[in-house]
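thread: overnight batch results

M.L. [08:02]
morning all. the overnight job finished for the chain we discussed friday. pasting input first so we're all looking at the same thing
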Amino acid sequence: MFRLMLALLLLAGCTGTPLPAAKKSESLPTVVITSTSVPAIKPASASVPMKASLPTSIAASTQASAQTSVTFRNKTLADATIYVSFGADSVIQAAAWSAFCTASAPLNCMFTVAAGKEQVLPSAGYLNVTLSAGQPVSCGSTKAEINVNHPGAFDVTDISLVDGFNAKMAIDMNGTILGPPVGKEGNEKVFGVYPLGCDICTARQSPPCGIPAGGPGCKSGTQYKPDVPCQAQGPTVGGGGSVIVNLLP
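M.L. [08:03]
and the structure it wrote out:
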């Protein structure tokens, strides 16, 4: 009888021992801590925008150390009168060029460049300016359009015949040449030139100066992807480099 009771007690003890072990094995799913650790990945992905902002700070330092210089060169055999129209948002306006440019309004002035000579155009700051030669910036004039040193944008330049044509001009932008136009017509394949009346590069959507809408003569492709670009863009946000506007014979 004693042996039977002892055997039963031993049997109960053996079966009771594994139970805690079973509970320990059931506690393994609690390693679902790995699933709660997944949110820790989100802060890492959230830091991506911070990395994306690095180029901005780099651009800011680049802008602070160097800005785009602008020069006008007269390559003709005669003195040239250059007319200037500043954009309303331009930090640099007529008063900043008063040493050589005679102002007619806060956003307009004019200066003369002798044959074969050049004029450095102060550009220590955001400069949005349009230049024409021989007649004011208006209907009938070829225009060199310059937008440089904006702290949040790339430099952009072009030769525009949107309002008309009266002179051959070209722009040297960091070694890339825009223009010159071949004449009033026939500029569909000339890099960096808006053809006559083609206000959106590839079409005459709302042309100014009485030029009829529609018709041939603009670039092929779409406004934002023409076959031959109507303008050129600088390599760095905030400027840095050189722009030389050339008046040609």
